[in-house]
Batch of 3 targets.
Target 1
Amino acid sequence: MLHSVGIVGTGSYVPEKVLTNADLEKMVDTNDEWIVSRTGIKERHIADPETPVSELCYQAALKALEDAKVAPEDVDLIIIPTVTADYLFPSTAGLVADRLGAKNAAAFDLSAGCTGFLYGITTGAQFVSTGMYRTVLVIGAETLSKILNWEDRSTCVLFGDGAGAAVLQPVEEGYGFLGFELGADGSGGHLLTCLGGGSKNPASIESVQNKLHTIRMAGSEVFKFAVRIMGDASFKVLEKAGLKKEDIDLFIPHQANLRIIDSAVKRLGIDPEKVVVNLDRYGNTSSASIPLALDEASRGGRLKYGDNLLMVGFGAGLAWGATVLRWAKR
Ligand code: COA
């Protein structure tokens, strides 16, 4: 990297309303025992019908900017990874920039499914590294509840709503991002989809009747991919960073399924005490999952100056990503 770049502030936000497994038992043919034993999820937060994802972004961004002690007008770029933008266009990033008063910021959304936050910080870091921008705000946010088929028990129990934000700035040499790994395999794209509303299946009475605007997933195929790629991507990024698994002080995996996390932890040989898990309370919040966990870890005192942090994710695309950074926040 030309300039060292790190995360200098974090923030997160979830809607107030909690949907428990017991609530879901009344909606579809499922039960708490199945959901907990197969996924580790106990409850998730759900946005009200009138709350768009930009509201979640705004709340998380306010906290991240405050944490980083950055004024909105000093933000140079806002990137919002999301698959549940307010609209097809204008971008949610533009709407959030306006609401924050980030008058000097460029802004765009980014589509990389549940790997969105890792794609977002990797992209944002390049702008800071080259010196083109000094301050980049990345907000991973989703209102997946709005694109779920609430009659499909194989998907509706898995996901939740939320937002997590990170502020990127130059940091002292030897700190911040030490390595990035990104990948995508479109041949598996059909395994996790939301097919309606785009140019292939524009919104129509038929597309709505056929529930094309909701998430469909081949769960066990995605599961196998996830287990393989979590380990592969982590080993690759550690090698790029010149670190060994023993050097990792904290591990933040994408929060999709506890069994996927456990198998990655086992394969990597990381001490389970060093793993951040919060999916029991939030479910899978897609591109919000890693920044939400990161914010909780940072505010909870689990990250100290100089700690090596590994983050890894996977999802629709099929895409994956991993990064290692040395924590530069005091
Ligand atoms: N409640 C009760 N039973 C359910 C259920 C639910 N909510 N959802 C599915 N089942 C049933 C299935 O119908 C199936 O029944 P059958 O054997 O009679 O056909 C049975 O449970 C087993 O289903 P299966 O899909 O094999 O379970 P699984 O152990 O693979 O777990 C997932 C399903 C979805 C939890 C798991 O595959 C998974 O987590 N995949 C990865 C998903 C993911 O991470 N996606 C996001 C990527 S970012």
Note: The chain has two domains: 5-174, 177-326.
Target 2
Amino acid sequence: MNLLVVGSVALDTVETPFGSVKDALGGSSVYISVAASYFTQPVRLVGVVGGDFPREHIEFLASRNIDLDGLQIVNDGKTFRWGGRYHYDLNVRDTLFTELNVFEYFKPTLPESYKNSTYICLGNIDPILQLDVLKQVTKPRLVVGDTMNYWIDTKPNELVSTLRHMDVLIVNDSEARLLTKEPNLIKAAKKIIKMGPGIVIIKKGEHGATLVTENTIFTAPAYPLENIFDPTGAGDAFAGGFIGWLARTEDLSPDNLKRAVIYGSTLASFCVEKFSIENMRDLNYLQIHDRFLAFMELSRFDER
Ligand code: AMP
């Protein structure tokens, strides 16, 4: 089933205790689309880049069968750039710079062929733009959204309006607390449910993710990797794996939502094993399925 993804397309400069990369392919819509492309087709990307965006990145995205009709190329502008540095505790990250460039004037306009999109993933951008995208889609079946501290602080009312149109909100623990002013994460998730999304997923970095609905709580561990090189985009890869699986199966039952959380965690675990999207360039079905099965083993136990 088709999937529409909107968000940033970036050139990232990232330092971790294990190395660094400069102007590597990144951005929320890239991580989401690449992860989702392992499950469903077509993935339709909406974003903007400048004339400096390397041709090889376009070719890579196209090679994953990602539809780029919605990628605006502003030839006389520069691509959005973001820089970050991680500490030994990889949950701690400093943003070194954010150069909006062409992203500053980004107005997501959907090509005609995208307007019938069914599964929608709103990456972390201005909530007003997220809503603009939704207004252009005729009949979405599932809307999954992400946000971040910056929008919670600077556009709380606009974010609340957009939340009313989301079915699933994916946020990290600190964002859930900030949004609801509630320290307990389960209570925070239930408060968010009252704001619109019937399903809330709270990500806790290396401690996994918890899905909360009115009647269910499901917790997935993060895959216990010994080598984590770059956590950038893990949350977006999670979102891509999650919605990609749901779009593939077209099944929104509680059991399948749990599987989607595990497929999201699976793609996030591949993402962090190398810089940028390097480790998600060329996965195969068996690698993904084996890790999915390993997740089952991680917390399976018998009563006696
Ligand atoms: P995450 O690690 O999930 O926070 O996602 C990291 C990605 O988000 C990087 O590839 C960045 O290019 C992108 N990013 C960083 N800041 C912003 C921003 N203000 N708006 C949109 N995307 C951003």
Note: The domain at 3-298 is CATH 3.40.1190.20 (UDP-N-acetylmuramoyl-L-alanine:D-glutamate ligase).
Target 3
Amino acid sequence: MDKGQIVLQESLENTFGCNVFNDAVMRTRLPKNIYKALKRTIDQGLPLDPSVADVVANAMKDWAIEKGATHFTHWFQPMTGITAEKHDSFISPTPEGRIIMEFSGKELIKGEPDASSFPSGGLRATFEARGYTAWDCTSPAFIKENTLCIPTAFCSYTGEALDKKTPLLRSMEALSKQAVRVLRLLGNTTVTKVTTTVGPEQEYFIIDKKHYEQRKDLILTGRTLFGAKPSKGQELEDHYFGSLKERIAKFMQEVDLELWKLGVLAKTKHNEVAPSQHELAPIFSTTNVATDHNQLTMEVLKKVAGRHGLVCLLHEKPFAGVNGSGKHNNWSMSTDDGQNLLDPGHTPHENAQFLLFLSAVIQAVDEYAELLRMSAANPGNDHRLGANEAPPAIISIFLGEQLTDILEQIENGGVKSSKVGGELKIGVSTLPTLPKDTTDRNRTSPFAFTGNKFEFRMVPSSASIAGPNTVLNTIVAETLSRIADRLEKASDIDSEVQKIVTEIIKNHKRIIFNGNNYSEEWVAEAEKRGLPNIKSMVEAIPALIAEKSVKLFEKHNVLNHAELHSRYEIHLETYSKQINIEALTMVDMAKRQILPAALKYSKAVADAVTAVKAVPSCDVSAQESLLKELTAGINAFYGSLNELEKTLANVPSDDAYTVAKYYRDVVFVAMNKLRADSDKLEVLVDSSIWPIPTYADILFSV
Ligand code: ADP
Ligand code: MG
């Protein structure tokens, strides 16, 4: 390495996490006893002594001020899906009329934001609207724009969760408890904690700001509500993994740097399938930290894009007819004694353990498929899931040929196949090593086993990953708890494990599908198997309050009846509001931009007809037929516009579900009709008159 490179590498090493109050900083800045006390709280969830909090707060403040911070904020994740912060400065007056910088343990541990304007789904009456934020010390504090940000959970005064983080933390605890039970019964005496880990792959679009600013739909709704298919789309697939354009490369470099400063392990970046689409993947971390980091990642992507005259679109479907964006949620479980519980491992003992945990996931996903589907529902994802695009709305699991084969053989009374070699009896020392699956990756599966983790591919690109992971953790906690219950009663653990695995495969193999998830045959086959096919968000949300779900979430102390019902209301209201904004934006653009342009052009054509007609020997048929086509297009467009306005005038005042259903079945349908009519006009009208940038302008200009 030359000297320049070494300097660069050293400075990168110093840059990484430079804005994070991480373990290394705590170790050097906190007195030993305080550090130890805090670590116990972080690692074991023990309550924190107030005197310890004071010392930690003071050290945090000194550190933050050295880094240029003047303010602190409790950083939280309300049900809006984005993060919220309210900044307070460190200043405190002295009697001499001067100031000192202060930050107390009390301020670190608890905040009281005025929370009346955050969605609560009726949980928090406005007269007691205070709500409070509580320090989540398992996710490190960090500095962003001269502000010390303290990750917090956000609750009502009576302790109900008003955010996305609280249930996530509760679900992690639930899973840990049940997984440890199972491991203990399998003879593990060292493990005390199991954490769920996540690496979310973030997809996004980057477009030029000058186009964005000319499109009210992008500004107000994050997606294009109009736009004809360009002559070139993604059919050549020449963008996927293509070399990065210079402007994009510079943008990505800065994104990496900003993320590294925040301790986010940004690792992989590449172009995606669609033009202007890209992906960023971090190295995985605990579900909690990964969730916080993904929120930061989305924020940084947007902010840095702005600095480069670009705009980052996180919407699931910014462009119709072009691949949408998702977030692949790579998920696994790992123990504090260093094992990945979804790693097939090398010894028979690990093998039995692996198969048991694998079975727990299979059973969980099959039994609670509706909940998982619900966790991936948002208005944007309706354009992907169930709309002939990746991934499909039907939940199924891809295991790969070899693993499926092994499970089938277990179901049929033991493995004898040469594919694996030897006889597979779980827990018996002659058990062969499970081979790493060598089959090709299945990219069409919504829930794929990828060697040592599951990849949940339905997660929406713009949403927090807290929801899906809360569901995943909780449903697997449930199946593990049932397994633990059985093992506790068993006299022979080995044979009971064998029985459990065999039973689960028998009862839940319908969820396993290794074929093409996009095919028509699969839709029919899935229906035969009795797998749910929930096509829209509105249909997906009721799963949240189904009796089965309430029982599940209450049993594991993740969400109670009231919290679930509040979330149900919030999700449905969010949907209705979002569609309403989209519809109003359409009406506005249709009336004030598209219609005037079409009329202007039809006038020009009408003038041409008159002008040509005036010349006796000229054939005016081309002009006339264009005028005819144009007029017919304008009439259709105008009719659809009126129809959409009518649907908006007739929104029922009813319960949240009925209203959302109306938006889905009536308003949304009218929007699609108006769009189709506009897109037909777009390809007729003179491009110099067309009032908004086209798909070709936007998608191929950066
Ligand atoms: P792919 O081929 O899908 O890109 P990678 O191995 O590169 O597979 O991993 C994709 C993502 O999965 C990365 O974010 C990675 O950190 C994450 N990942 C790897 N192992 C685990 C694990 N045990 N738990 C959670 N996420 C993981
Ligand atoms: Mg992947």
Note: The domain at 201-326 is CATH 3.30.590.10 (Creatine Kinase; Chain A, domain 2).
